[in-house]
Design a protein that fits this description.
With 247 residues, this protein is α/β, with parallel strands linked by helices. The chain has eight helices and ten strands. The strands form two sheets. Strands 6-7-8-3-9-10 form a six-stranded mixed sheet. Strand 9 and strand 10 form a beta hairpin. Helix 3 runs parallel beside helix 5. The longest helix is centred in the C-terminal third of the chain and has 18 residues.
Length: 247
């Protein structure tokens, strides 16, 4: 569904993406791993057109995203849902209004249908109706992630991007959020792209894993293939070794 071809992007003369080549299959979850600060979030922003590469192509459903501008780009983004690293909930809106927000802003659905869809998504992430009227500052970190996931799913996107979806969560809640991602993917069949450095927990949602290191994808494959990859940088990362950063 998504193909990155020789994608290059520099900031202040430093190449963050140095010729990225990656295929992301339709209907599967591809996890992109790597140490913090390696450029995973930068890569994610290119997939939704928030950043444009200095060179290279990003082909999505046969369309080169790098050539789209203005209204054409805005329309194309309707394919995407995004779960931001911090959740990005609106502090002044309730849980219900946060999740319903995209429907109110981007559609002309009747109120009854907005209510039905919003409650359906909240139930899908195991949030009951008694949570609807709470505000973000009344929620735990895990609850905020669930609300953010429900909002990302509200328009039934074809592609869902997850930027460090369990950042700041303890291990039990990390597993809960990854379980919800796996469950919603099974139910809705979207193409998922997850950027994370949470090893090995993130493998429970992955169909494919790619590793970003020094601006390049150095390994890609199914979870078993990735875990058996002979590259010492990959094995060092999997084993939590500090020395791999110099490899």
């Amino acid at each position: 569904m998504i193909q990155l071809i020789n994608v290059v992007r520099s900031f202040d003369g430093q190449r963050v993406l140095d010729g990225i080549n990656l295929t992301i299959p339709r209907g599967k979850i591809t996890v992109i791993i790597g140490k913090s600060g390696v450029g995973k979030s930068v890569l994610l922003k290119h997939l939704v057109g928030l950043l444009k590469p200095d060179q290279g192509q990003i082909i999505i459903d046969g369309v080169d995203l790098t050539r789209l501008t203005g209204r054409a780009l805005q329309d194309f983004r309707q394919k995407f849902g995004v779960l931001f690293q911090g959740g990005a909930l609106f502090d002044s809106l309730t849980v219900f209004e946060n999740v319903a927000f995209p429907l109110r802003e981007k559609t002309r659905l009747p109120e009854a249908e907005i209510i039905r869809r919003t409650r359906e998504r909240l139930a899908q992430v195991n949030l009951t109706q008694d949570m609807e009227h709470k505000f973000p500052d009344e929620l735990s970190g895990g609850m905020k992630k669930r609300v953010a996931l429900a909002r990302a799913l509200i328009q039934e996107p074809e592609i869902l991007l997850f930027d460090e979806p369990v950042s700041g969560l303890d291990p039990p809640m990390t597993n809960t959020v990854f379980h919800l991602i796996a469950k919603t993917h099974q139910q809705l069949g979207y193409t998922g792209v997850v950027v994370s450095h949470d090893i090995p927990a993130v493998f429970q949602v992955a169909d494919y894993v790619a590793m970003l290191h020094r601006g390049k994808i150095i390994a890609w494959g199914t979870v078993p293939e990735f875990q058996a990859h002979p590259d010492p940088v990959v094995q060092g990362f999997l084993q939590g070794e500090v020395n791999f950063l110099e490899a």
